[in-house]
Amino acid sequence: MILTHSAASLRRKADAAVRAGRFTEAAGLYRQEAAIYRRRGDSNGAKVEEAKADRYTSEIRLFAHPPGSARRLPPNVRLQKYEPAHGCYLGAFIDRDERLGRSFLDENSQSHYDPDAFADLTGRSHASVFCYLSYGRRFPLRWVERLKQRGVAPHIAWEPNQGLSAVQEDRYLREFAEDAARAECPIFLRFASEMNGQWTRYGGDPLQYRTKWGIVHRAMARYAPNVAMVWCVNSIPEAPIARFYPGDEYVDWVGVACYSVPCHDNDPARASLWENPADLIRFVYDAYAGRKPIMVGEYGASRRSAAEGRDRSAWAARKISEMYASLPRLYPRIKCINLFNMNNLVYAAPGRQLNNYSITDEETVRAAYARAIRAPQFLSALGDSASSPLVPLVSGKAARQLAPNGILKVSAWARCPYAARFTVRYAVDGREVFRSGEFGTYEATLSLPRLGSGQHRLSATLTDERGVLAARSEYRL
After folding, report:
1. How far is 228 from 91, CA to CA, in rounded Å?
2. What gap in Å lies between CA 129 and CA 125, rounded to an integer?
3. Which of 20, 200, 441, 475 has the fewest beta carbons closer than 10 A?
4. CB of 325 within 8 A of CB of 301?
5. Which residues pair with 203 in a beta bridge?
C-alpha cells in the first residue's frame, strides 16, 4: 500500500487518537483515509482502513415494535419459495451434540439427534435443522421422515467433495431428486456452498460451477419441486462471490456462512475479538437482499480456540447476542439463521480442529442463545410469520402511529467494539427511564399517556466501561 501525503497524515492522526482513547475521532480519521484509497481504486487498502474504523465505531439506534397485523411488503419484494413475510426461521446443526440423548442412523450410517431435545435445552423449537451430505451418498430419507413427523424442515448441505466432475445428469441425481420429492415436505438444499473459499474442492472455476449448479437445479425443478435451492457463500473472500452466482432464475435463497472467532486462521497475531458478527454479513446482504431472501447458512461463536486454549464463554455469549439482535433490526430480509452447534476441537476433521462452537456444554453460552432466540421475530416453524417488522424510530413521527394503544415498545441496536462492557440508557425529557449493562436488545416499554400531550424528547446513550459517552441518538415524540 502506497500512502499519499494526506493519507499518511490521516493515519498518523488516527493512530494518535487511539493511543489517547479518543476512539470516535479515530474512527472518523480512518474512514477519511479509506475514502482516499477508494477514490484511487485501491479497494484492498480501503478495506484495511475501514476495518480499523469499524473497530472504534460505536452506535446506538432505536426501533419501535408496532402492534397489530402485519404490514404490507415493499412493492419491489416478491416472496420466494418458503419465505415468510416477516421474521426469521430458527435453524441449527445439532448432529454432534451428545447432550441431546440417543442418536439414530440414516441410510448412510450418519448419526442424527432429535430436534425436540435441542428445543428443550434452548427453550424454542427450531423451524429447521441441517446435516452435511457428500455428493454420491443416498438421500437421507429416514432422517427427513423423522424431522417431518416433528414439523421440522430438513436442510441438506450437499457437498461434491470429490469435485464438480462427479455432478452429471445421471441416474444418481435423478433418484436423489425423486427421493426428495417422495418426502412430500419442504426441503432446503444448500448445494456446493462456500465455493468462494480455497478450502473447498469445487471452487476454482466459476463457469464450471454455474454449469453444474444448473444441472442440479433442473433436476430438482423437474422431479422435486418441494426443494428450495440455497446458494451459500462464505463471508470472505468477497471478491470472487459474484462470479459464482448462478443467476436469479436458478436460486431460491442466497446464503452466507460466517463465524466469530478470537483470532483468524488460528493465528494469535490476527486477533479478532473486536469484530461484530453483524458486519460479516453486510456485503452479501447489500448485494442480494433486494432480489432474494437471505439465509445465514452457518453461524457459530467460538468459546475456545486451539490457538489460545483459554475459555472465552462470556465473549461467545456476547457475539451470539450481537448477531441475533442485528437480524430483525439491520437485516429484515434475513429470513433464516442456522446456528452451528458443534465442538470442532473434537469432531472436526484433522487440520480443522480449531474452535469449540458448542452452545450446550457451557451454561453462559447456552443461556445467551436461549435469550437471543426468545424474541417473537424468530420463527419456530415454516409457514409462521412475525406480525410486523421492527420500525426504525424517526424523529417527529407521531408516536400514536407506532403505539395506537398508548404503549410504545422500543429496543436498540447498540455496539461499542473496543469496550469489554458498556451501558445503554434511555431518557425522556432528560429523566432516565431505562438502563442496562447486559448485551442484547435493550427492550423498554413507554407509557405515552403518562408523558402528557405535546412534543417530548427521547434519548438513547451508550457509555463505555470508563463512563465515557461513546454514542447518542435523540428522537422527538
Report:
1. 15
2. 10
3. 20
4. no
5. none
Nearest to 254 by CA among 180, 153, 336: 336
| Residues found in the chain | 477
Kindly state which CATH superfamily the domain 88-379 is placed in: Glycosidases (3.20.20.80)
Give me 355's grid cell.
474452535
Domain ranges of the chain: 5-57, 60-64+394-476, 88-379
User: DSSP strand E in 21-138: where?
Assistant: 59-64, 88-93, 104-105, 111-112, 128-134
Cβ pair 213, 191 in contact under 8 A: yes
Nearest partner of 231 among 265, 278, 193, 264, judged by Cα: 193
Angle (CA) 295-287-374 rounded to 5° is 30
What residues contact 7, with CB distance under 8 A and at least 6 apart?
A: 33, 36, 37
Residue 297 to residue 342: CA distance in whole angstroms: 15
The answer to whether 184 and 226 are in contact (CB under 8 A) is yes
- Full pLDDT tens readout for the chain, 477 residues: 455 568 899 999 999 999 999 999 999 999 999 999 989 988 888 888 988 999 999 999 999 998 865 566 667 778 999 999 999 999 999 999 999 999 999 999 999 999 999 999 999 999 999 999 999 999 999 999 999 999 999 999 999 999 999 999 999 999 999 999 999 999 999 999 999 998 899 998 999 999 999 999 999 999 999 999 999 999 999 999 999 999 999 999 999 999 999 999 889 989 999 999 999 999 999 999 999 999 999 999 999 999 999 999 999 999 999 999 999 999 999 999 999 999 999 999 898 999 999 999 999 999 999 999 999 999 999 999 998 889 999 866 666 667 777 889 999 999 999 999 999 999 999 999 999 999 999 999 988 888 888 888 999 999 999 999 999 999 998
Angle at which helices 363-372 and 313-330 pack, to 10 degrees? 10
pTM: 0.94
Instruction: Tell me the C-alpha distance between 61 and 393, whole Å.
Output: 8
Q: Measured between alpha carbons, how far is 51 from 87 in angstroms, rounded to an integer?
A: 30
The CATH number corresponding to 60-64+394-476 among 2.60.60.30, 1.20.1290.10, 3.30.420.270, 2.60.40.10 equals 2.60.40.10
What pairs with residue 475 in β-bridges?
Answer: 458
Contact 380, 329 (CB under 8 A): no
